[in-house]
Design brief:
Helices cover 42% and strands 19% of the residues. The strands form four sheets. A seven-stranded mixed beta sheet has the order 9-8-10-11-12-15-16, sandwiched between helices. It has a five-stranded parallel beta sheet with strand order 2-1-3-4-7, with helices on both faces. It is α/β, with parallel strands linked by helices and 421 residues long. It folds into two domains: 3-165 and 297-378, Rossmann fold; 167-295 and 394-417, Rossmann fold (3-Layer(aba) Sandwich), CATH 3.40.50. Helix 4 (96-110) packs parallel to helix 5.
Length: 421
Protein backbone atom coordinates (compact mmCIF):
# COMPACT_ATOMS: atom_id res chain seq x y z
CA UNK A 1 0.00 0.00 0.00
CA UNK A 2 1.37 3.43 -0.92
CA UNK A 3 1.80 6.30 1.52
CA UNK A 4 -1.12 8.18 -0.02
CA UNK A 5 -3.38 5.14 0.25
CA UNK A 6 -2.43 4.75 3.93
CA UNK A 7 -3.16 8.43 4.49
CA UNK A 8 -6.56 8.17 2.84
CA UNK A 9 -7.51 5.01 4.72
CA UNK A 10 -6.33 6.55 8.00
CA UNK A 11 -8.62 9.50 7.36
CA UNK A 12 -11.62 7.29 6.55
CA UNK A 13 -11.06 5.00 9.54
CA UNK A 14 -10.59 7.94 11.92
CA UNK A 15 -13.71 9.79 10.82
CA UNK A 16 -15.76 6.58 10.95
CA UNK A 17 -14.56 5.84 14.47
CA UNK A 18 -15.25 9.36 15.67
CA UNK A 19 -18.68 9.35 14.06
CA UNK A 20 -19.60 6.08 15.73
CA UNK A 21 -18.43 7.31 19.12
CA UNK A 22 -20.28 10.63 18.73
CA UNK A 23 -17.11 12.60 19.55
CA UNK A 24 -18.29 15.83 18.01
CA UNK A 25 -15.96 17.88 20.15
CA UNK A 26 -12.97 16.61 18.21
CA UNK A 27 -13.77 18.34 14.93
CA UNK A 28 -10.56 20.34 15.19
CA UNK A 29 -8.56 17.14 15.32
CA UNK A 30 -10.36 15.87 12.25
CA UNK A 31 -9.42 19.06 10.46
CA UNK A 32 -5.74 18.50 11.21
CA UNK A 33 -6.00 14.96 9.86
CA UNK A 34 -7.96 15.80 6.74
CA UNK A 35 -5.99 18.91 5.81
CA UNK A 36 -7.23 22.27 4.68
CA UNK A 37 -8.73 24.90 6.95
CA UNK A 38 -11.39 24.22 9.54
CA UNK A 39 -13.01 20.95 10.53
CA UNK A 40 -13.82 17.91 8.44
CA UNK A 41 -17.24 19.26 7.47
CA UNK A 42 -15.97 22.64 6.33
CA UNK A 43 -15.83 23.26 2.57
CA UNK A 44 -12.53 22.86 0.79
CA UNK A 45 -11.55 26.31 -0.43
CA UNK A 46 -10.57 26.51 -4.09
CA UNK A 47 -10.67 29.15 -6.81
CA UNK A 48 -10.53 30.16 -10.42
CA UNK A 49 -8.70 33.11 -12.00
CA UNK A 50 -10.05 33.47 -15.52
CA UNK A 51 -10.46 36.28 -18.10
CA UNK A 52 -14.03 37.48 -17.57
CA UNK A 53 -12.94 40.89 -18.88
CA UNK A 54 -9.98 42.07 -20.93
CA UNK A 55 -8.39 40.77 -24.11
CA UNK A 56 -9.61 37.16 -23.68
CA UNK A 57 -13.06 38.00 -22.32
CA UNK A 58 -14.73 36.16 -25.21
CA UNK A 59 -13.62 32.90 -23.60
CA UNK A 60 -13.67 33.65 -19.87
CA UNK A 61 -17.34 33.09 -19.11
CA UNK A 62 -17.36 29.70 -20.79
CA UNK A 63 -14.22 28.67 -18.90
CA UNK A 64 -15.72 29.78 -15.59
CA UNK A 65 -18.98 27.99 -16.32
CA UNK A 66 -16.98 24.82 -16.98
CA UNK A 67 -15.26 25.12 -13.59
CA UNK A 68 -18.63 25.58 -11.93
CA UNK A 69 -20.01 22.52 -13.74
CA UNK A 70 -17.11 20.46 -12.42
CA UNK A 71 -17.82 21.79 -8.93
CA UNK A 72 -21.46 20.71 -9.25
CA UNK A 73 -20.50 17.21 -10.35
CA UNK A 74 -17.98 16.91 -7.52
CA UNK A 75 -20.35 18.19 -4.84
CA UNK A 76 -23.31 16.13 -6.10
CA UNK A 77 -21.18 13.11 -5.20
CA UNK A 78 -20.49 14.43 -1.70
CA UNK A 79 -17.14 16.00 -2.59
CA UNK A 80 -13.65 14.71 -1.87
CA UNK A 81 -13.29 13.30 1.66
CA UNK A 82 -16.99 13.93 2.19
CA UNK A 83 -16.45 17.69 2.05
CA UNK A 84 -17.95 20.07 -0.47
CA UNK A 85 -15.72 22.16 -2.69
CA UNK A 86 -16.25 25.91 -2.59
CA UNK A 87 -14.91 27.75 -5.63
CA UNK A 88 -14.16 31.48 -5.42
CA UNK A 89 -14.27 32.77 -9.00
CA UNK A 90 -12.04 35.75 -9.77
CA UNK A 91 -11.59 37.84 -12.91
CA UNK A 92 -7.97 38.00 -14.12
CA UNK A 93 -8.97 40.90 -16.41
CA UNK A 94 -6.34 39.30 -18.72
CA UNK A 95 -3.73 41.38 -16.87
CA UNK A 96 -0.80 39.94 -14.86
CA UNK A 97 -0.96 42.65 -12.17
CA UNK A 98 -4.71 42.25 -11.63
CA UNK A 99 -4.46 38.45 -11.59
CA UNK A 100 -1.68 38.62 -8.99
CA UNK A 101 -3.88 40.78 -6.76
CA UNK A 102 -6.76 38.32 -7.09
CA UNK A 103 -4.43 35.40 -6.36
CA UNK A 104 -3.11 37.01 -3.17
CA UNK A 105 -6.69 37.60 -2.06
CA UNK A 106 -7.59 33.95 -2.64
CA UNK A 107 -4.56 32.77 -0.66
CA UNK A 108 -4.65 35.26 2.22
CA UNK A 109 -8.40 35.75 2.64
CA UNK A 110 -10.01 32.55 1.38
CA UNK A 111 -7.20 30.15 2.22
CA UNK A 112 -7.43 28.23 -1.05
CA UNK A 113 -5.50 24.99 -1.57
CA UNK A 114 -5.75 25.05 -5.38
CA UNK A 115 -7.20 26.96 -8.31
CA UNK A 116 -7.88 26.80 -12.06
CA UNK A 117 -6.18 29.48 -14.18
CA UNK A 118 -4.94 31.61 -15.60
CA UNK A 119 -5.75 31.53 -19.30
CA UNK A 120 -2.95 33.36 -21.10
CA UNK A 121 0.66 32.35 -20.50
CA UNK A 122 1.63 35.94 -19.73
CA UNK A 123 -0.76 35.91 -16.78
CA UNK A 124 0.00 32.36 -15.63
CA UNK A 125 3.78 32.66 -15.50
CA UNK A 126 3.99 35.27 -12.69
CA UNK A 127 1.40 33.33 -10.66
CA UNK A 128 3.25 30.06 -11.14
CA UNK A 129 6.42 31.58 -9.68
CA UNK A 130 4.68 31.96 -6.29
CA UNK A 131 2.47 28.90 -5.91
CA UNK A 132 5.12 26.49 -4.59
CA UNK A 133 6.21 28.79 -1.76
CA UNK A 134 2.54 29.37 -0.89
CA UNK A 135 1.74 25.66 -0.95
CA UNK A 136 -1.08 26.19 -3.47
CA UNK A 137 -1.74 24.06 -6.55
CA UNK A 138 -2.26 25.92 -9.84
CA UNK A 139 -3.76 24.19 -12.88
CA UNK A 140 -3.98 26.28 -16.03
CA UNK A 141 -6.55 25.31 -18.61
CA UNK A 142 -5.13 27.40 -21.45
CA UNK A 143 -1.50 28.48 -20.85
CA UNK A 144 0.71 26.70 -23.35
CA UNK A 145 4.14 28.34 -23.20
CA UNK A 146 6.98 25.79 -22.91
CA UNK A 147 8.49 27.84 -20.05
CA UNK A 148 5.80 26.61 -17.66
CA UNK A 149 7.18 23.08 -17.80
CA UNK A 150 10.05 24.32 -15.62
CA UNK A 151 8.18 26.61 -13.19
CA UNK A 152 6.38 25.91 -9.92
CA UNK A 153 8.74 23.50 -8.16
CA UNK A 154 9.43 23.10 -4.46
CA UNK A 155 12.15 20.47 -4.38
CA UNK A 156 10.86 17.61 -6.52
CA UNK A 157 7.21 18.58 -6.08
CA UNK A 158 5.62 20.61 -8.86
CA UNK A 159 2.76 22.91 -7.87
CA UNK A 160 1.95 24.00 -11.42
CA UNK A 161 0.10 21.73 -13.82
CA UNK A 162 -1.99 22.26 -16.91
CA UNK A 163 -4.61 20.49 -18.94
CA UNK A 164 -3.64 22.41 -22.10
CA UNK A 165 -0.75 21.01 -24.15
CA UNK A 166 2.80 22.35 -24.07
CA UNK A 167 3.44 24.53 -27.14
CA UNK A 168 6.60 22.54 -27.71
CA UNK A 169 4.33 20.03 -29.47
CA UNK A 170 2.82 22.70 -31.69
CA UNK A 171 6.26 24.07 -32.56
CA UNK A 172 7.35 20.60 -33.69
CA UNK A 173 4.31 20.37 -35.98
CA UNK A 174 4.82 23.86 -37.42
CA UNK A 175 8.43 23.00 -38.21
CA UNK A 176 7.37 19.73 -39.81
CA UNK A 177 4.93 21.53 -42.13
CA UNK A 178 7.73 23.84 -43.27
CA UNK A 179 10.25 21.02 -43.67
CA UNK A 180 8.33 18.39 -45.60
CA UNK A 181 8.01 18.56 -49.37
CA UNK A 182 4.45 17.24 -49.16
CA UNK A 183 3.56 20.58 -47.56
CA UNK A 184 5.92 23.56 -48.03
CA UNK A 185 9.45 22.20 -48.23
CA UNK A 186 10.98 25.58 -47.38
CA UNK A 187 14.65 26.48 -47.48
CA UNK A 188 14.22 29.76 -45.60
CA UNK A 189 11.63 30.71 -42.98
CA UNK A 190 10.71 33.74 -40.91
CA UNK A 191 8.62 33.79 -37.75
CA UNK A 192 6.11 36.46 -36.74
CA UNK A 193 4.86 36.30 -33.16
CA UNK A 194 2.83 38.33 -30.73
CA UNK A 195 5.13 40.01 -28.22
CA UNK A 196 4.30 37.95 -25.12
CA UNK A 197 5.37 34.73 -23.41
CA UNK A 198 3.08 32.58 -25.55
CA UNK A 199 4.24 34.09 -28.84
CA UNK A 200 7.94 34.10 -28.10
CA UNK A 201 7.95 30.60 -26.60
CA UNK A 202 6.10 28.95 -29.47
CA UNK A 203 8.06 30.80 -32.16
CA UNK A 204 11.34 29.61 -30.62
CA UNK A 205 10.11 25.99 -30.59
CA UNK A 206 8.98 26.22 -34.21
CA UNK A 207 12.32 27.74 -35.19
CA UNK A 208 14.16 24.89 -33.45
CA UNK A 209 12.06 22.34 -35.36
CA UNK A 210 12.70 23.97 -38.76
CA UNK A 211 15.62 22.36 -40.63
CA UNK A 212 16.33 25.24 -43.00
CA UNK A 213 17.65 28.76 -42.45
CA UNK A 214 15.70 31.10 -40.19
CA UNK A 215 16.06 34.60 -41.62
CA UNK A 216 13.90 36.58 -39.18
CA UNK A 217 12.22 36.39 -35.76
CA UNK A 218 9.86 39.38 -35.57
CA UNK A 219 7.59 40.27 -32.62
CA UNK A 220 4.50 42.40 -33.10
CA UNK A 221 2.65 44.72 -30.74
CA UNK A 222 -0.98 43.80 -30.08
CA UNK A 223 -1.85 47.48 -29.66
CA UNK A 224 -0.66 48.53 -33.10
CA UNK A 225 -2.93 49.03 -36.11
CA UNK A 226 -0.30 49.47 -38.83
CA UNK A 227 2.01 46.49 -39.38
CA UNK A 228 3.65 47.61 -42.62
CA UNK A 229 7.09 48.08 -41.07
CA UNK A 230 6.73 44.76 -39.23
CA UNK A 231 5.95 42.98 -42.49
CA UNK A 232 8.84 44.74 -44.25
CA UNK A 233 11.21 43.39 -41.63
CA UNK A 234 9.65 39.92 -41.77
CA UNK A 235 10.15 39.63 -45.54
CA UNK A 236 13.46 41.47 -45.81
CA UNK A 237 15.33 38.26 -46.73
CA UNK A 238 12.60 36.63 -48.84
CA UNK A 239 11.52 33.67 -46.69
CA UNK A 240 9.74 30.78 -48.44
CA UNK A 241 7.58 30.18 -45.38
CA UNK A 242 6.25 32.24 -42.48
CA UNK A 243 5.31 30.81 -39.09
CA UNK A 244 2.65 33.07 -37.58
CA UNK A 245 1.93 32.90 -33.85
CA UNK A 246 -0.81 35.30 -32.90
CA UNK A 247 -4.48 36.01 -32.22
CA UNK A 248 -7.41 36.60 -34.60
CA UNK A 249 -7.90 40.30 -33.79
CA UNK A 250 -4.44 41.47 -34.83
CA UNK A 251 -4.12 38.59 -37.27
CA UNK A 252 -6.94 39.94 -39.38
CA UNK A 253 -5.19 43.30 -39.76
CA UNK A 254 -1.78 41.74 -40.40
CA UNK A 255 -2.97 39.39 -43.12
CA UNK A 256 -4.97 42.09 -44.88
CA UNK A 257 -1.88 44.32 -44.96
CA UNK A 258 0.25 41.37 -46.10
CA UNK A 259 -2.18 40.68 -48.94
CA UNK A 260 -2.32 44.34 -49.98
CA UNK A 261 1.47 44.60 -49.90
CA UNK A 262 2.05 41.59 -52.17
CA UNK A 263 4.79 40.13 -49.96
CA UNK A 264 4.40 36.45 -50.95
CA UNK A 265 5.46 33.42 -48.90
CA UNK A 266 3.48 30.45 -47.58
CA UNK A 267 1.99 30.72 -44.10
CA UNK A 268 1.78 28.25 -41.22
CA UNK A 269 -0.67 29.43 -38.56
CA UNK A 270 -0.66 28.65 -34.85
CA UNK A 271 -3.62 27.23 -32.96
CA UNK A 272 -4.25 30.68 -31.52
CA UNK A 273 -5.51 31.71 -34.99
CA UNK A 274 -7.77 28.68 -35.37
CA UNK A 275 -11.06 30.54 -35.33
CA UNK A 276 -14.02 29.96 -37.65
CA UNK A 277 -14.91 33.65 -37.89
CA UNK A 278 -11.30 34.57 -38.62
CA UNK A 279 -11.17 32.29 -41.66
CA UNK A 280 -14.61 33.35 -42.89
CA UNK A 281 -13.66 37.04 -42.73
CA UNK A 282 -10.44 36.35 -44.64
CA UNK A 283 -11.77 33.67 -46.97
CA UNK A 284 -9.72 34.63 -50.02
CA UNK A 285 -6.57 35.56 -48.11
CA UNK A 286 -6.24 32.47 -45.88
CA UNK A 287 -7.11 29.92 -48.55
CA UNK A 288 -4.29 27.37 -48.77
CA UNK A 289 -2.62 28.34 -45.50
CA UNK A 290 -1.55 25.57 -43.13
CA UNK A 291 -2.54 25.18 -39.51
CA UNK A 292 -1.00 23.20 -36.64
CA UNK A 293 -3.78 22.18 -34.29
CA UNK A 294 -4.23 19.92 -31.28
CA UNK A 295 -6.55 17.05 -32.18
CA UNK A 296 -7.00 15.20 -28.89
CA UNK A 297 -8.73 11.85 -28.77
CA UNK A 298 -12.34 12.25 -27.73
CA UNK A 299 -13.60 10.48 -24.61
CA UNK A 300 -17.03 9.83 -23.10
CA UNK A 301 -16.36 12.84 -20.89
CA UNK A 302 -16.67 15.13 -23.91
CA UNK A 303 -20.24 13.96 -24.52
CA UNK A 304 -21.19 14.56 -20.89
CA UNK A 305 -19.53 17.96 -20.91
CA UNK A 306 -21.10 19.10 -24.19
CA UNK A 307 -24.54 17.91 -23.11
CA UNK A 308 -24.51 19.95 -19.91
CA UNK A 309 -22.66 23.06 -21.09
CA UNK A 310 -25.12 23.88 -23.87
CA UNK A 311 -24.19 26.95 -25.90
CA UNK A 312 -20.92 27.36 -24.02
CA UNK A 313 -19.65 23.86 -24.85
CA UNK A 314 -17.64 25.14 -27.81
CA UNK A 315 -15.76 27.77 -25.80
CA UNK A 316 -12.02 27.52 -26.38
CA UNK A 317 -10.29 25.70 -23.50
CA UNK A 318 -13.53 25.35 -21.49
CA UNK A 319 -13.28 21.51 -21.32
CA UNK A 320 -9.74 21.96 -20.04
CA UNK A 321 -11.07 24.16 -17.22
CA UNK A 322 -13.53 21.44 -16.20
CA UNK A 323 -10.72 18.89 -16.11
CA UNK A 324 -8.51 21.21 -14.07
CA UNK A 325 -10.87 21.27 -11.10
CA UNK A 326 -12.02 17.66 -11.42
CA UNK A 327 -8.45 16.35 -11.33
CA UNK A 328 -7.59 18.41 -8.26
CA UNK A 329 -10.59 17.07 -6.39
CA UNK A 330 -9.63 13.50 -7.33
CA UNK A 331 -6.09 14.14 -6.08
CA UNK A 332 -7.43 15.42 -2.76
CA UNK A 333 -9.51 12.31 -2.24
CA UNK A 334 -6.66 10.00 -3.12
CA UNK A 335 -4.28 11.83 -0.78
CA UNK A 336 -6.69 11.82 2.15
CA UNK A 337 -6.07 15.48 2.82
CA UNK A 338 -7.02 18.82 1.30
CA UNK A 339 -3.75 20.66 0.85
CA UNK A 340 -1.86 22.05 -2.10
CA UNK A 341 0.97 19.63 -1.49
CA UNK A 342 -1.43 16.69 -1.49
CA UNK A 343 -2.87 17.80 -4.83
CA UNK A 344 0.57 18.34 -6.33
CA UNK A 345 1.83 14.91 -5.28
CA UNK A 346 -1.25 13.00 -6.48
CA UNK A 347 -2.25 14.99 -9.57
CA UNK A 348 -0.38 12.77 -12.04
CA UNK A 349 -1.41 9.43 -10.56
CA UNK A 350 -5.18 9.97 -10.88
CA UNK A 351 -4.76 10.77 -14.59
CA UNK A 352 -2.92 7.70 -15.84
CA UNK A 353 -2.96 3.96 -15.17
CA UNK A 354 -5.99 2.32 -13.61
CA UNK A 355 -9.73 1.99 -14.08
CA UNK A 356 -11.05 4.65 -16.42
CA UNK A 357 -13.45 7.21 -14.97
CA UNK A 358 -15.13 10.06 -16.78
CA UNK A 359 -16.69 13.47 -16.26
CA UNK A 360 -19.63 13.28 -13.89
CA UNK A 361 -18.36 10.04 -12.33
CA UNK A 362 -16.86 11.44 -9.15
CA UNK A 363 -18.71 8.94 -6.95
CA UNK A 364 -17.37 6.02 -8.97
CA UNK A 365 -13.87 7.45 -8.73
CA UNK A 366 -14.16 7.87 -4.95
CA UNK A 367 -15.39 4.31 -4.51
CA UNK A 368 -12.46 2.93 -6.50
CA UNK A 369 -9.94 5.01 -4.56
CA UNK A 370 -11.50 3.98 -1.24
CA UNK A 371 -11.05 0.36 -2.29
CA UNK A 372 -7.36 1.00 -2.89
CA UNK A 373 -7.63 0.88 -6.68
CA UNK A 374 -5.89 3.18 -9.16
CA UNK A 375 -7.94 5.41 -11.45
CA UNK A 376 -7.33 6.92 -14.86
CA UNK A 377 -9.45 10.04 -15.37
CA UNK A 378 -10.34 10.54 -19.02
CA UNK A 379 -10.96 14.24 -19.47
CA UNK A 380 -13.49 16.32 -21.33
CA UNK A 381 -10.57 17.96 -23.18
CA UNK A 382 -8.44 14.84 -23.86
CA UNK A 383 -7.31 11.68 -22.06
CA UNK A 384 -5.14 14.08 -19.94
CA UNK A 385 -2.43 11.53 -19.23
CA UNK A 386 -0.07 13.74 -17.21
CA UNK A 387 3.69 13.43 -17.59
CA UNK A 388 6.30 14.30 -14.95
CA UNK A 389 5.87 18.02 -15.71
CA UNK A 390 2.14 17.65 -14.98
CA UNK A 391 1.06 18.38 -18.55
CA UNK A 392 -0.56 16.14 -21.16
CA UNK A 393 0.75 15.09 -24.53
CA UNK A 394 -1.94 15.64 -27.18
CA UNK A 395 -2.49 14.15 -30.58
CA UNK A 396 -2.03 16.85 -33.24
CA UNK A 397 -3.30 17.48 -36.75
CA UNK A 398 -1.85 19.20 -39.79
CA UNK A 399 -4.68 21.14 -41.40
CA UNK A 400 -5.11 23.35 -44.44
CA UNK A 401 -7.62 26.16 -44.89
CA UNK A 402 -9.79 25.52 -47.93
CA UNK A 403 -12.66 27.91 -48.70
CA UNK A 404 -12.71 29.09 -45.06
CA UNK A 405 -12.99 25.50 -43.80
CA UNK A 406 -10.25 23.51 -42.11
CA UNK A 407 -9.36 20.25 -43.81
CA UNK A 408 -7.33 17.71 -41.85
CA UNK A 409 -4.39 16.43 -43.91
CA UNK A 410 -2.54 14.32 -41.36
CA UNK A 411 -2.94 13.15 -37.77
CA UNK A 412 0.17 12.91 -35.58
CA UNK A 413 -0.21 10.53 -32.61
CA UNK A 414 0.84 11.34 -29.06
CA UNK A 415 3.61 8.75 -29.23
CA UNK A 416 5.39 10.82 -31.92
CA UNK A 417 6.16 13.52 -29.34
CA UNK A 418 7.50 11.31 -26.58
CA UNK A 419 11.05 12.34 -25.73
CA UNK A 420 10.95 15.31 -28.12
CA UNK A 421 9.99 18.06 -25.65
Amino acid sequence: MTGTEKSRRAYLQTTAALGAAGLTGLSGCIGSISGGSGGSDDPIQMGSILPITGALSAYGNGMQEAVNLAKKHINDAGGPLGRTVKVHNKDSETKPSKASQKYKSLVNEQGIVGFVGAASSGVSVPLAKNVASDGVMQVSNASTTPALAEIGYEGDTKYFGRTAPNDGQQGIVMGRIMNEDDYIGADKAAFLHVANAYGEGLAKKAKAAFDGETVAMVPYDKKSSDYTSTLDKLFENDPDAVGFVGYPGNGKTILKQWDNGGYGGEWVLSEGLNDKGFFENLKEITDGMYLASPSPESTKSADTFDGEMGDQSGTLFAPHAYDGLFLQALAIHKAGEATGEAIAKNFQSVSRDGTKVYAGEFQKAKDLLDDGESINYQGASSPVDMNESLEPLNRFAIMQVQSAKRKELETIPRTYFEGKL
